[in-house]
Structures are given as structure tokens and as C-alpha cells.
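Help needed: design a sequence for this.
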């Protein structure tokens, strides 16, 4: 008989797990707090790597759908200083890491899952090894396996370990520019088809531009800021003028070629304080409960690996469940060992980059790192 499985969270990890299980005759139930697939904007674009993100989509049977949306020219990359001096450029080079918008990734995963599997508007407030308790008042129990794919602030994590995320020292402000070719032609030309990262490491400031689909550009102003800066700074995050005034002061001595984004973005900004779990984390495996994705190894985005490892976790756990449906405890342990091993280098790199990009000499060291990474790719 198929095991009865609960997945908490319909992010990339939870959806990929549900998709692979359904494809292999095991129907889980996914509990998601969002009221619907379109309840909130999903954010920017993600590059998916061959052995992890892309392999997981292949296990979902979604390679053709991925290729429909994948932007291979999105791999272009420019690195500059705050004056706009370009120190490093990759153009028209295959790095094996095409970009896809989060909305599109979510859509293709959702379309691969039969109706009724996902229960929207179910916000988990607490859990035991047997029971899920929801904000809406009801509870669910009787599962052979509970998977926490509920991201940074997982309510399932405490069933595996008592470690909490800590603030990384960096906060990002996400800005969006639309219809860029007609409304923001200068910035559109500067950014090009892929990513444009500008560093003022000495000042703890970065502007990270990212081409998205639909003639859209996202820009993240990442800054070294104290914990709770978003709340304590006095910025009114509903007021574009208040946001612009604060960012203008933070980026006052940047070239207008780049800082013009502060004047030109559409006025709605998402503020993202970045949290992380320790780069190495493991726990004694449980018999009926596990966690995957950010719930298990939250890291800052500076290695570009979070979603890739999350998707790989889903693939590895699904494979173990499908191979050993009668030995869930064994499946959990095998998948966790793979997950811990797969996540530790990525998490260490993300943490190293979190320090390095915002300290003196960070720009030059980042250049060295990218050059080494490209050499390695060439060798393969
Ligand atoms: C600014 C930024 C940029 C990033 N850029 C990149 C990048 O370029 N490349 C990359 O690889 N990674 C990137 N990441 C990381 C990436 O977004 C995550 O690693 C990835 O989304 C993890 O997927 P997940 O499914 O584990 O968790 P999530 O995407 O967080 O999904 C968790 C899901 O669980 C739901 N949920 C949460 N709590 C509950 C609850 N109590 N009850 C029910 N449902 C719940 C949420 O609504 C959500 O749908 C970035 C992250 C940030 C913040």
C-alpha cells in the first residue's frame, strides 16, 4: 500500500517532491499557507544547474516545459565597481545554468500535479510526530511521513533539530522595472540579457541587476545593515518616496548609470533581510518526519544554489520513498545523508560570499572566484 504522506509547503522543494511522487503512483497531500497560486509575487529569476535543479525537473518529467521557458542568454554576466567600470564580462558563453523566472518554474511544477493534491490556505502553526495543527483551527493526523518543505521559518524543523536561522548581516531591497526596452532603455542596455553585479565592497553595498522574462528587470540593493533595520530605520515601505530617499543616501556616490534604478523602479519594493542556518547542519534522523530545502539548509542567495539544492533534495527523497515505500525510516535516513552532503559545500560557499562581497577587496576576490569557476567549467 502507498504510504500516506503530508508535505508542508508548496515552494519549489514541496512541489517537486509532490510531482515526482504523483508520477510514480504515490499521491501525497500538500498543505500550503498561500491562499492560491497567485496570492503573492514569487520574486526574480533563478539559474538551474544540470546535476541538481535540472535533474530534479527531469525526474518530474518536465524537461521540455523547462526548455520552453529557459533563457540561455540569461547566463551573460557583468561585474563592475560602483562607478560602472566593467571588470569582468561573460557574453554568449554556455555555463550550463540557464535562467527561469520563479513564476514560470512554479507554474510548470503546479501543472504537473493532479488537482486536489495541494490544499491552499492551510497555515501550519505547530506539529508533532503525528499531528499537524493549522491556524484555521483543524488538525490532520495519521501520516506515515511528514515532510517539512516550509522554508526558512519551518514549523516542522523543531521535530528534527532545535537550531534556528540567524541574521546574516545583509538586507536586500528588491526593485522591479517593467517594459524596460521602452521605459528604461538606458538601464536595459546597461544590464543586457543576463546579470549585472556592481560591488562597493568597502562600503558594504551591492546592486545586483537581473534580467527577467517579459521585458522586466529586477534589481536587488543588498546592504550591510543591522538586524531589524527594515523595521527600525523609519522607512515607510508603502511609500515610494520614503524608500527612494533612503536608497539615494545609501548609494549617493554611485554612478547615475546604475543608481538611476532608485528613481526609475516601479515604486513597490520588497525588503528582504537575509537569514541563514549554520553551513553544516544535521540531526539524528527521525522515523516519520524530515525536512528539505530551505527548511533544512537555509542559506543566503550568494552562491546561487538554494533552489538547486532544494530541488535535488526533493528528487533524492522521492527516489528513496519510491524504492522503499515500506521502509520510510530508512528512506528518510538515506535521503538526509545525501542532502547533508549535497548542501554543505553550497552553504559554505554562500556564507563565504556573504562575508567576502561586503568587505574590502571583495570585488577583486569575487573576480578571481568567477574566473576559477569558468576555468573549471571549460575543463569539463
Ligand atoms: C532575495 C533572494 C534571492 C534568491 N536567489 C536565488 C538564486 O538566484 N538561486 C537560487 O538557487 N536560490 C536563490 N534564492 C533561494 C531560493 O529562493 C530558496 O532556496 C528556495 O526558494 C527554497 O525553496 P523551498 O521550497 O525550500 O522553500 P520556499 O521557496 O521558501 O517555499 C516554502 C513554501 O512553504 C510555504 N509555507 C511556509 N510556512 C508555512 C506554514 N507554516 N504552513 C504552510 N505553508 C507554509 C510558503 O508559503 C512557501 O510556499 C534566493 C533567495 C532570496 C531571499
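Sure. Designed sequence:
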Amino acid at each position: 500500500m502507498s504510504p500516506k504522506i503530508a508535505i508542508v509547503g508548496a515552494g519549489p522543494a514541496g512541489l517537486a517532491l509532490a510531482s515526482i511522487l504523483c508520477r510514480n503512483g504515490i499521491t501525497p497531500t500538500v498543505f500550503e499557507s498561500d491562499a492560491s497560486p497567485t496570492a503573492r509575487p514569487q520574486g526574480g529569476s533563478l539559474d538551474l544547474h544540470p546535476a541538481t535543479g535540472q535533474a530534479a525537473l527531469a525526474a518530474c518529467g518536465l524537461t521540455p516545459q523547462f526548455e520552453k521557458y529557459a533563457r540561455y542568454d540569461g547566463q551573460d554576466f557583468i561585474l563592475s565597481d560602483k562607478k560602472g567600470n566593467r571588470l569582468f564580462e561573460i557574453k554568449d558563453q554556455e555555463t550550463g545554468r540557464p535562467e527561469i523566472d520563479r513564476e514560470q518554474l512554479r507554474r510548470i511544477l503546479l501543472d504537473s500535479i493532479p488537482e486536489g493534491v495541494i490544499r491552499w490556505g492551510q497555515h501550519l502553526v505547530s506539529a508533532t510526530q503525528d499531528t499537524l495543527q493549522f491556524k484555521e483551527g483543524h488538525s490532520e493526523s495519521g501520516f506515515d511521513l511528514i515532510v517539512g518543505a516550509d522554508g526558512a521559518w519551518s514549523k516542522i524543523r523543531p521535530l528534527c533539530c532545535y537550531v534556528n536561522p540567524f541574521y546574516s548581516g545583509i538586507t536586500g531591497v528588491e526593485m522591479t522595472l517593467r517594459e524596460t526596452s521602452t521605459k528604461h532603455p538606458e538601464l536595459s542596455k546597461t544590464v543586457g540579457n543576463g546579470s549585472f553585479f556592481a560591488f562597493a565592497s568597502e562600503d558594504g553595498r551591492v546592486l545586483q541587476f537581473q534580467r527577467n522574462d517579459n521585458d522586466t528587470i529586477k534589481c536587488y540593493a543588498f546592504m550591510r545593515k543591522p538586524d531589524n533595520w527594515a523595521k527600525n530605520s523609519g522607512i515607510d515601505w508603502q511609500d515610494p518616496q520614503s524608500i527612494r530617499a533612503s536608497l539615494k543616501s545609501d548609494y549617493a556616490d554611485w554612478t547615475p548609470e546604475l543608481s538611476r534604478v532608485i528613481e526609475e523602479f516601479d515604486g513597490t519594493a520588497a525588503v528582504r533581510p537575509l537569514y541563514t542556518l549554520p553551513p553544516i547542519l544535521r540531526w539524528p534522523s527521525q522515523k516519520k518526519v524530515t525536512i528539505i530545502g530551505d527548511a533544512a539548509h537555509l542559506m543566503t542567495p550568494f552562491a546561487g544554489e538554494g533552489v538547486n539544492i532544494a530541488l535535488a533534495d526533493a528528487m533524492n527523497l522521492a527516489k528513496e520513498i519510491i524504492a522503499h515505500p515500506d521502509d520510510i525510516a530508512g528512506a528518510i535516513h538515506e535521503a538526509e545523508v545525501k542532502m547533508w552532503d549535497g548542501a554543505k559545500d553550497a552553504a559554505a560557499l554562500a556564507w563565504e560570499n556573504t562575508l567576502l562581497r561586503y568587505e574590502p577587496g571583495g570585488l577583486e576576490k569575487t573576480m578571481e572566484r568567477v574566473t576559477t569557476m569558468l576555468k573549471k567549467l571549460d575543463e569539463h
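The chain has a mean pLDDT of 95.
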